[in-house]
Amino acid sequence: MKTTNFFLAITAMVGIMFTSCTKNDLLGGDVPTSLKNTNWKLVGITDTQTGVLKKLKPTDCKQCYTFTFDTDTTALGYTVSNEMRIGGLNPILIGGTKIYEQGDAGIYYDALFSVRSYEFKGNELKLFYDNNNKYLFYKIVH
Fold this sequence. Notes:
It is a single chain. The chain has 2 helices and 11 strands, in the order αββββββββαβββ. It is α+β, with helices and mostly antiparallel strands. The protein is globular and about 30 Å long.
């Protein structure tokens, strides 16, 4: 059930986006209007009540806590020790596990699979969970 909710959020995101990029001088470069061919890196988890951002450990891992969308509906993601694949028109988890996780990857994994809504603006992506009290905050990686 939790997995389904995350993938429904991803499906909703891609359903309202187009398949190109636009130039936005205020945001400093190309701004995606589609998830296709975009890379996202987690900045941290934000508490919507306090605005406090918690960075997940390890913080010096380039591949950790990332998603790369190869189409608007399929992506490859990474925790700390494992990869996750999502895909399909009704997105399903093709692979993903908590085995051998390190750092805060368990927190990340649990948060991902309890996402209920999202916000996509420019180079930022927010995936809300915990009754919209927290969100996973991503920045696009060029």
